[in-house]
Every structure is written in structure tokens, then in C-alpha cells.
Design goal:
2 copies of one chain form a homodimer. Chain A is an alpha/beta fold. Helices cover 38% and strands 18% of the residues of chain A. In chain A, the strands form 3 sheets. The first copy, chain A, has an 8-stranded parallel sheet. A 3-stranded antiparallel sheet of chain A has the order 2-3-4, with no helix packed on it. Chain A has a two-stranded antiparallel sheet with strand order 8-9. Chain A starts with 5 loop residues before the first strand and ends in a 7-residue tail after the last helix. The model of chain A has no long low-confidence stretch (mean pLDDT 96).
Chain lengths: 337, 337
């Protein structure tokens, strides 16, 4: 490949989970049940949550797929269902350390091809802040993935202040991924609609909450990115902007117009549509979008370079979306070329 | 004004409500409490739901505002909180007839300036179908406004089949308006965020449900429009399209690609943003967008003609967005010029 391409949005699953060692009888502690040589079921609460392939944990399989798709480097983050916000904090901490250990090993196998985004038990924001500080001392990590909500509360809530304060001061990259949307009664059809129809709205709620709760104002140097192109957020932002001008209550703790904060956030390009990607560039700026694929899951973008190329941008801007913006988000100075 | 402009998205509130005459002690039956000569509080369950101005029911006040904004004709629909799906069907029917009576009187006062979209008790789909049939015999009505969900169930659910079958066979125009979003824990900030941040997602769920539940496939001649530019739906549609290609289960009852159905729906232009409106045109087609303002509520678009003019379209396409598409949606043949 001729031009560097960083895939910001990829997931991992450990090949195995340790037996639950806590004291609560944690029914949602995951385990792996082998299906065949290449696949396993992630079992949660006695049911298969998802059948996953060994690209989830095998570095060689990933590198082969990356080479085929023209991806120089993958950013590894946990499959979101592993984030474990619904467990007691000490159990979630144990899961975090296991998953982060998997990521650390994978990066160590090919440090020129991978960078890690770990996970922390955000249901205890002080504990999450301390764990983030510890994680950032490991050069294999540049930050963490977090969910759009923590057991139903959007991430912009003031209770998460200690975590975001730590993230800002540590210069950690925070990747916000759709998780457990609020859509009761709203989906008519198959269970896959949750990821397909609800994820975009769930991401929009998270991004909006970072603005309307004042978190973005209080932490102007926080580096935060939203999955799935920010989901529906680009379509919600004009109405939020209009409401901010119209309703004085929306200005409490939010001195600048919402669009200003939104143009300081990062977003991946995972929207499967040229017209929408152009709308994202127009709304958020070409400096804020980063190539992302959802590798290795079924819904992934299989031809991410072609998706960016189809925008018809100038070469310098293509390079921004391919890698330049991701380097800025991740902290480019120390990233090996 | 030189070019006809139809405002599809305007609301009315009756000047008064009759005392509750049912048998249940209906706590959510609304009443009006006068604030001053020009304003009243809509009281629901002992609290002020909203302070509204007399433009809500006074035809003279509306016409003055229409002349100022260059609007030839308003389509009158109920303030959505009056839709009363949460009442027993017979109570909701009584409320529907009172609200529809108000609309009928307003249209009768200036039939060249107004057309009505009434309401029906959709919590009882068979009753709603009969009431729609009765309403469509009154030339002052072209259809009804409905909510995005009926007590939490998205409108694409099969239980609403009798209503949509009747709407299709009667050639009634159905205007779907955001109502009571599913956003528990997702809004961080003032209560106005529900209309500002949640409405777009709620509309997206409703539009998607009409496709994924097969309703759009079963009723190809149904004329249906979605408020707020379809909300976030244009940003969700590419992912739904991708999922439909990817997951066989999403094709059950949905033989055509989601985008084909979406381009048969109508949408208003109420998005407050040139870039987003262009994205809507690109996604849904210039034949599907209709000027809308949310008159007379605070959040309304005050300069709707300028908002359309800013798109830089050719004159023939401006005329489509101003009025031509609305005439098609409403049933143009009988609409006085």
C-alpha cells in the first residue's frame, strides 16, 4: 500500500476468559464455548451472545485481513458487550484487566500494526480514573473505549466528571461506542435492528450529552471520538443548535454554540454512504473524521479505502481521513510511522 | 407573495376543552387556564403542559402571521400532546371529535388559507379506521396527524394494520409527528432537550418501523409524511440499507431495499440547516420534501421561505418544496389554487 491507513474502529475478544473468581455469582461473566477450529460462542448468562471468529484474538489472521484491505494499523478495542458496567466495580475491574491484558499481548506481537484502546470500570468513575492512569503508563495503549451510556445514564452526566478530568489531563484518547440503546417498543422486526436502527440514535444521545451537560466546556482539551460517524448526531445537531439559540435554559453551563463543541469531537467514517460522509465532513470538518470498519464483525465495512476514495477529496484530505486525523486523536508524536 | 407556499407543519389548540364527560376520572384530560388576553396554559394532570398563544385557535392572528411570512396556506394539525393515545378509546374518541371540530371551524373561516389534518384514537386501530373514514367525508380534512408511537409501540407494528389499510384505501394523508420519545437517562440538561435532542431519533424509529415491519411494502399507495425532516432517519437509513443487504432476517417481509421505501415517504423541511436539507434532498429526493415550520410554537422556523431559498435550487424545484409536493401529498386535484 502506498498511503498509510489507520482503522480506528476494530474490536477484539479474548480467546478465553478466566473462571469467575468474585464473590457474587456473577451470571453475566462471559465464557467462551468452542464451535470449531475457527469460531467460538461468547456465552453470557447461559446464552450465546455472539459467534465470533478467531480474527478476534489471532494477530496473524488480523494482519492477513489488514493487508488485503490496505490497512496499515488497527486500533484494538473491546467488543462493547465486554465493557461490564453492569457488574460490581471490582468484578468489572477484573474483567477490564483481563481484556486489557489480551490487547497488550496482541499489540506486543506486532507493535507496528496495532495500538490499544483498553477499558475501565466506568460505573465507578474514581476507580476508572485511577485505572486509566495506570493503563496510560503502558505504551501499548493510547486510551480507552467507553460505552455511550453507563447502565442507562448518558456519559455527559456530571457523575462521570472524575473520569473525563483524568482523561483530559492524561491526554488519553476516548472512543465512545454504541451500547444498549434505549428503544423499548421502537423496533419492529428482527433483533439485528438494535445494532442497525438504534445504535445511531444511541451515539447521538451520548455526543449531545457531552455538550448539554457542560462536560465538553469543562474539558476543552479532552480528545473524544464517537463511533458510526457519530450515529445520528449530525442530523440532531442543527436542531440542538437552533434550540440553544432559542431557549435560555440550554445555555446553562454551555456558553458556546453546540456546533463549536461538536467540531472539536472526532468521529469515525463508518456510515456506508458517500452522501452521508460528505454531510459529516460539512458538519464536523474534514479534520475530525477517521477511517473505521468494525472489523471483524459481520456488519463491517469491507472496503474502507474505497469508501474514503469515493468522496473525491484532494489527496491531502484523503490522507487526513486515512491516518492524519487518527494520529492527532491518538497522540501522533509517539506513534511509530 | 408571488409563489404559492404551503406550510405542512403547523399546530392548533382549541380555545377551550369541554369538561370531562367520561366515567373514569381521566386525570390527563386537558383544560385551558387563562393567563392573559392572548395566552392560556394547557393544564394536564394538574400541571401546565405549555403556555400557548391565541394564534393556536384564532384564525385572524394566524392569517396575519402567514401573510408576514409569505405562507399561502397552513395545514392545521393538533398539538401532539392532544393525541390522547393514553386514554381509554372512547375518551380519546371524544377528544378527537372536539379537536377535529376546532380544526373544521378554523378551516371553514378561511377555506382558501387552511386545510385540516385531524386526529383519531389509534390505540384502537379498528375504531381509528372508522373515524378516519368518517373524517374523510368532510372536505375540510385531507387526513390525520398521528404520533410516532402509540403508548410506546412504534407505528410500524402489525397491530396498526387496519388503520393504515384504511388510510391507503381512503387516499388519506398521514402526517407522523414526534411524540414521547424513548430516552430514559439519555438527556443531560434542561427539559427542553426532549423536543430538541430526542424528537429526531423518535421520528427515525417510526420511519424505520414502517419499513422493517413490512407496512410500507403492504401499502404501496399509502401517503405518509414524517415531521422534522424525518428527524435522524436520513442518517440511519444508510446503516439500515447496509444491514438489509447483510442480514437475511431483515429481508423477511421487506423484499425491496429500505431506501426504495424511504424515497416513497414524504418529509417536512423543518431542520434549520442548509447542509442537512441538501442531504435530505440527496437521500429522499426533491419530490418528497415539503415546507414546514412548527407554527406557532417557540421552536418554529420563522423564515421558512428563506430557508428553502438558501438551498440555491432551480425555480421549478423551489416550487416543489414550497407547494407542489404538498399538493401531491394532500391530494392536489381538489385543493383550491
Amino acid at each position: 500500500m502506498t498511503v498509510e491507513a489507520i482503522d480506528l474502529h476494530t474490536h477484539i475478544v479474548p480467546a478465553e476468559f478466566p473462571a469467575y473468581a468474585g464473590s457474587r455469582g456473577e451470571a453475566r461473566w462471559p465464557s467462551m464455548h468452542t464451535v470449531d477450529c475457527d469460531h467460538a460462542n461468547v456465552m453470557i448468562a447461559g446464552k450465546s451472545f455472539r459467534t465470533v471468529g478467531n480474527e478476534c484474538w489471532e494477530v496473524g489472521r488480523r494482519i492477513a485481513a489488514m493487508d488485503e484491505a490496505g490497512i496499515s494499523r488497527q486500533i484494538l478495542s473491546p467488543m462493547p458487550e465486554l465493557l461490564s458496567y453492569w457488574m460490581a466495580p471490582d468484578d468489572a475491574l477484573a474483567m477490564s484487566r483481563h481484556v486489557n491484558g489480551t490487547i497488550a499481548h496482541m499489540v506486543a506481537e506486532a507493535p507496528g500494526r496495532f495500538i490499544g484502546l483498553g477499558m475501565v470500570p466506568l460505573q465507578d468513575p474514581e476507580l476508572a480514573a485511577r485505572e486509566l492512569e495506570s493503563l496510560m503508563r503502558d505504551e501499548r495503549f493510547r486510551g480507552v473505549e467507553i460505552g455511550t451510556n453507563i447502565t442507562g445514564i448518558a456519559i455527559g452526566d456530571a457523575r462521570f466528571e472524575p473520569f473525563f478530568a483524568a482523561a483530559e489531563s492524561l491526554d488519553a484518547a476516548i472512543f465512545v461506542h454504541a451500547l444498549h440503546p434505549s428503544d423499548e417498543g421502537r423496533l419492529i422486526g428482527s433483533p439485528q435492528l438494535k445494532a442497525v436502527v438504534s445504535f445511531p440514535c444511541e451515539v447521538s444521545y451520548a455526543a449531545a450529552s457531552m455538550i448539554t451537560g457542560g462536560m465538553a466546556e469543562r474539558h476543552p482539551r479532552l480528545k473524544i471520538a464517537f463511533s458510526h460517524g457519530g450515529g445520528a448526531f449530525a442530523s440532531v445537531l442543527p436542531r440542538l443548535e437552533h434550540g440553544w439559540h432559542r431557549f435560555p435554559a440550554l445555555k446553562n453551563g454551555v456558553p458556546r454554540a453546540p456546533r463549536e463543541y461538536a467540531r472539536g469531537f472526532f468521529y469515525d467514517t463508518l456510515v456506508y454512504d458517500v452522501a452521508m460522509t460528505r454531510f459529516l465532513i460539512e458538519t464536523f470538518g474534514k479534520s475530525q473524521l477517521m477511517l473505521g470498519t468494525d472489523f471483524p464483525f459481520d456488519i463491517r465495512e469491507h472496503t474502507p479505502r474505497a469508501a474514503v476514495d469515493a468522496l473525491g477529496l484532494e489527496a491531502a484530505d484523503v490522507a487526513l481521513l486515512y491516518a492524519g486525523n487518527a494520529r492527532r486523536f491518538l497522540g501522533g508524536a509517539g506513534l511509530p510511522a
